[in-house]
Amino acid sequence: MRALAALVSLAWPLGAVPALDATANSTKYTVLEMYAAAKSGDDVSSPGNVDLFDAAGLAKYLVTEVVVETGKAAERPTRDKGIDTIVKYRIRVRNNMSSSDVNVQAEFSKYVPFENGALVTPADAEMFARSGDLVGVQSYHPPHGDVRYPLQRTFYWFSLNGPCPNQPDGQKSSNCTTYQPGLVPKKKSQVVAGGLCKRFFTKNIPDGTPGCSYYIEKVETAKLDSVVGITDQDCGGRKCADWGDFRSHCSNATLSFTYSGVKYCKEYDFPDCISSCQDACKPQNEVGIPFWTGRCDPARNEERAAMIEKAFGGSQTDSYYTTNPRCDQYGPMCNKPVPDAGVAYCHRDASGVCDACYVPGTTHPASPRPPSQVACRYDLFLNKKLPQYKDFLPKCASSCSGACSLSSESAACCVYIGKCKRTWQQEDWGSCDADCGNGTRYRKVSCPFEDIFGPCDESTRPANSTDCRGDTCPWSKDHFGNWSECDNGCGNGTANQSLICQCPDDCPLGDKECEKSPKPPQPSRPCFPQGKAQGFCSECPAEGGDCTKCAKGFDLQDTSCRRSKRVALATYQVEAPGLSLKSEWLASAFVPAFKDALLGATNVSVDVLNLTDSPAVASLLAARALRALADNSSVYVAVAAEGEDDEDLAQLKTKMANNLDQMAKSLPQALAQHGCTPDHSCQLGTVGVSLLREEQMCPEGQAWNGNSCGMPGPGPKPPGSGFPTWAIGVIVVLILLLVAAVVAWTCGTCKRNQDPRLLA
Ligand SMILES: *[C@@H]1O[C@H](CO)[C@@H](O)[C@H](O)[C@H]1NC(C)=O
Ligand SMILES: *[C@@H]1O[C@H](CO)[C@@H](O)[C@H](O)[C@H]1NC(C)=O
Ligand SMILES: *[C@@H]1O[C@H](CO)[C@@H](O)[C@H](O)[C@H]1NC(C)=O
Ligand SMILES: *[C@@H]1O[C@H](CO)[C@@H](O)[C@H](O)[C@H]1NC(C)=O
Ligand SMILES: *[C@@H]1O[C@H](CO)[C@@H](O)[C@H](O)[C@H]1NC(C)=O
Ligand SMILES: *[C@@H]1O[C@H](CO)[C@@H](O)[C@H](O)[C@H]1NC(C)=O
Ligand SMILES: *[C@@H]1O[C@H](CO)[C@@H](O)[C@H](O)[C@H]1NC(C)=O
Ligand SMILES: *[C@@H]1O[C@H](CO)[C@@H](O)[C@H](O)[C@H]1NC(C)=O
Ligand SMILES: *[C@@H]1O[C@H](CO)[C@@H](O)[C@H](O)[C@H]1NC(C)=O
Ligand SMILES: *[C@@H]1O[C@H](CO)[C@@H](O)[C@H](O)[C@H]1NC(C)=O
Ligand SMILES: *[C@@H]1O[C@H](CO)[C@@H](O)[C@H](O)[C@H]1NC(C)=O
Ligand SMILES: *[C@@H]1O[C@H](CO)[C@@H](O)[C@H](O)[C@H]1NC(C)=O
Question: With a 6 A CB cut-off, is 570 part of the ligand 4 pocket?
């Protein structure tokens, strides 16, 4: 009697059991979903003496024990144990709640492993002899319930004992464990019967008596090969039929290996992380079909469980929640909550098992937080159909005046106790349902926390659709827009033509409507900013900024160009009727054409340093004067060429001055080759080329003494000083030209005006 009292007090300590709420019409048994791994042909309809799993537990079992290659014989004809089927049970469980063996996760006994229909540890039979048939559970709590299979929530294995659990299949006719005297009526068989209820009337079973601790409501099976995608693998131009076919014919070389000269394919392996995902485990070593990979990734493990559930149409656990027994009635685990710390609560989790959980954001949160617990389901206390812990609501740190949200711990606490302003929740808008032109986009609008607060006010429901424009209209392939600016602010650059987005109604949002379409090649042409030369720089940002590359013979040092070689500099004037860099095509072709023509005529390869249309001074003073200068107009080109040695430098001077007539003749052709075609109306007729100025320069620190580079003599300007003398020369020449022009013009008019002062 005393012993019995002790047992009872273990199960119901301190008598602090809240009375079952009168409004809750929950069943006495718990409905759960459990899964099994089986072999085709097995009778799976009456499970007994087996271990079952929740979805995540099944995935863990399969990936760590069944499909993993390491440790298995390569030539095995099937998966380990012949497993090719998964079974889903909807199952009612009710253990004898007054048994002291029912002390795991509130409603279960300890888990016992079975092999071949018998207990792996024969001593476990004593529990069934003592307390009758019990459903056991093994829980894997986050974050490392199994170091080989991390998951952010608790998952489970279950054990269901059948008849004669101490004897393996085929030997169950003799020597079976019997119940302790008195546990079942004397006139009944005393042999341990197994927990599967075999009754005619099924309404209130299981009842938790020996021989009736679980009852199968529904059995479904699925082929493992199709659930995990073996049948989507390629077996040489066709889909693999099953595991055996895949094993010998898979075409994916990543998955195959050779053993004793025979090729096999592995479903999954992770040799470096066989025993743990921690420590020395190297993630790159994992190989297998996509379903199994990511075993050390909690998110993938969550997905894998969801995929198993989905293979059977998804989990229904939530729909049994309000009819399953309340967890708050179970001591000692669940009935002593600490409201200000938010701990020692229990909720029925996604697997349907009562598990310890915490409430975040309370006044005196437990520190440290219970490491292996998850936050309680938010409707634990106030679910209208299953209110629990009525007198033990958590004490929230927040005043709970804001909107209902789970985004912070203190806000979440308010949801648990129903003290916040609940409003409609809307997700971000989805993408437009039209590729191009008018379409509609949608968003999900939902009423959150309905279990606690009931339905939302329909009159304030936000819209879930709106007009939108597609962003995958086609770019025109033969029409192009404006030319871009030159991408190089100091010379040799590229400009391209913008694309045109084509919509049925002129693209009100512009190019955005083509954003997602592949871009066709854009026409491009060379460009050379006119009159913007920065010394000897040949590359700088278009929007202005420091030099990034220098012309031939110069080196970039701290953003400025230093002469490091022998260079010859020259300025040419190119003259022709209608020659104007205002013509963009002509300007585009001019520099490459000039370089080609000069190379052809003089065999000197140059970099263009400066390109100007008309002298800057002239444009200021005498636009009228220039117009009067017949039809000819001029372009001025400053170039640099590199000399290898003194002799070469001396020769450059001659070469760069020679054959200019020939060059003038070839220039129009060269221009045409570089895009200055009749289509672009920029052909030139007669062209004249003249050399305005030439200069030889030595590496900085040396001076040209007429036939070689040497130490600077007396009097020359200090090395590296700013404006080159040859450029001053250019300007002088230009000014002279200008004066000539002005004189020519004034004389054209002075004859008529007879103005003596101008003549003078
Ligand atoms: C549970 O009880 C409530 C009232 O107590 C009743 O309205 C409801 O139909 C019952 N549900 C079930 C499934 O019996
Ligand atoms: C029955 O079990 C006992 C002890 O467990 C053993 O000694 C005996 O040989 C067994 N009998 C048979 C028929 O297996
Ligand atoms: C439950 O277990 C207790 C103690 O083990 C036992 O006294 C009681 O009869 C059992 N209840 C049922 C329904 O079998
Ligand atoms: C081969 O298998 C690996 C691992 O699952 C996968 O990453 C890869 O994409 C597969 N290759 C082909 C061609 O399917
Ligand atoms: C797209 O919608 C706008 C405004 O709703 C309308 O003016 C336009 O004609 C529509 N375009 C097409 C192609 O239907
Ligand atoms: C949009 O909301 C209406 C009710 O307001 C609903 O019937 C419809 O299914 C919703 N559409 C989508 C795509 O969510
Ligand atoms: C092209 O250039 C013209 C003239 O500068 C301008 O009016 C037009 O808006 C530009 N077009 C685009 C598409 O930028
Ligand atoms: C066209 O030019 C713009 C501006 O120079 C540049 O940003 C873009 O990358 C270029 N596109 C192509 C395809 O060259
Ligand atoms: C100028 O551009 C052409 C072609 O774009 C390239 O081959 C050449 O090297 C460039 N010259 C310099 C000095 O950047
Ligand atoms: C480029 O040429 C223009 C006109 O010929 C002249 O004004 C300018 O100073 C020159 N710039 C350089 C860096 O040579
Ligand atoms: C042109 O110059 C190169 C070296 O720059 C030289 O090898 C070649 O012989 C020259 N050709 C002519 C025709 O002078
Ligand atoms: C224009 O330039 C060409 C080529 O240099 C030359 O032959 C012609 O005489 C020039 N005409 C005038 C009016 O200067």
Answer: no
Q: Whose CA is nearest to atom 14 of ligand 1?
A: 25
Q: For ligand 4, what atom is nearest to the CA of residue 253?
A: 1
The residues that bridge with 338 in the sheet, in sequence order, are: 343
Nearest CA to ligand 6 atom 6: 464
Cβ–Cβ < 8 Å for 611, 589: no
Helix axis angle for 584-602 and 646-657, nearest 10°, is 120
Per-residue pLDDT of 462-518, as tens digits, reads 999 999 999 999 999 989 999 998 999 888 899 999 999 999 888 999 999 999 999
Residue having the nearest C-alpha atom to atom 8 of ligand 2: 175
Q: Say how many Å lie between the CA of residue 520 and the centre of ligand 9.
A: 24
Do residues 11 and 102 lie in contact, with contact meaning Cβ atoms separated by under 8 Å? yes
Q: How far apart are CA 23 and CA 644, in angstroms?
A: 102
Query: What is the pLDDT confidence band of residue 15, given thresholds at 50, 70 and 90?
Result: very low
Contact predicate 514/560, CB 8 Å = no
Distances (CA, A) of 454 to 110, 382, 391, 412, 565: 39, 11, 22, 18, 85
Contact 159, 136 (CB under 8 A): yes
Please tell me the distance between residue 667's alpha carbon and the centre of ligand 8 in angstroms: 29
- The 10s digit of each residue's pLDDT in 646-666 is 888 989 989 999 889 999 999
Q: Ligand 9, closest atom to CA 492?
A: 1
List the beta strands (DSSP E) in 178-315.
214-223, 256-259, 262-265, 268-269, 287-288
479 alpha carbon, closest ligand: 7
Atom of ligand 5 nearest to the CA of 438: 1
Enumerate residues lining ligand 9, CB below 6 A: 492, 538, 607
What residues contact residue 322 under an 8 Å CB cut-off, 6+ apart? 24, 26, 383, 385, 386
SS3 604: coil
Domains identified in the chain and CATH numbers: 30-229+291-309 (no CATH), 425-469 (no CATH), 475-527 (no CATH), 537-710 (3.30.70)
Phi then psi for residue 451, to 5 deg, are -60, -30
Q: Name the residue at shortest CA distance from atom 1 of ligand 6.
A: 464
Q: Which range is most confident: 27-31, 198-202, 393-397, 534-538?
A: 393-397
How far is ligand 12, taken at its centre, from the CA of residue 622, in Å? 20
In the chain, % helix, strand, coil (3-state, to 5) comes to 25, 25, 50
- Which protein residue's CA is at the shortest distance from atom 6 of ligand 2? 175
Q: Does the pLDDT at position 581 exceed 80?
A: yes
Contact 175 CB / ligand 2 (< 6 Å): yes
Backbone angles phi, psi at 366, to 5 degrees: -60, 135
Closest ligand 8 atom to the C-alpha of 519? 13
Assess whether the previous peptide bond of 360 is cis (omega < 30° from 0).
no
DSSP per residue over 698-732, as a string?
PSTT-EE-SSSEES--SSPPPTT-SS-HHHHHHHH
The answer to whether the bond into 332 is cis (omega within 30° of 0) is: yes
Pick the atom of ligand 1 nearest to 25's CA: 1
Residue 254 Cβ inside 6 Å of ligand 4? The answer reads yes
Q: In 3D, which of 661, 640, 664 has the Cα closest to residue 652? A: 640
Q: How many residues does the chain have?
A: 760
Q: Whose CA is nearest to atom 12 of ligand 10?
A: 533
Residue nearest to atom 9 of ligand 3 (CA): 183
How far, CA to CA in Å, does 191 sit from each of 176, 178, 194, 355, 713? Answer: 6, 4, 9, 33, 121
328 has pLDDT over 90: yes
pTM for the complete prediction? Answer: 0.64
10 Å CB burial of residue 51 (0-12, 13-18, 19+) is buried
- Token pair, residue 243, equals 């595991």
Nearest CA to ligand 9 atom 2: 492
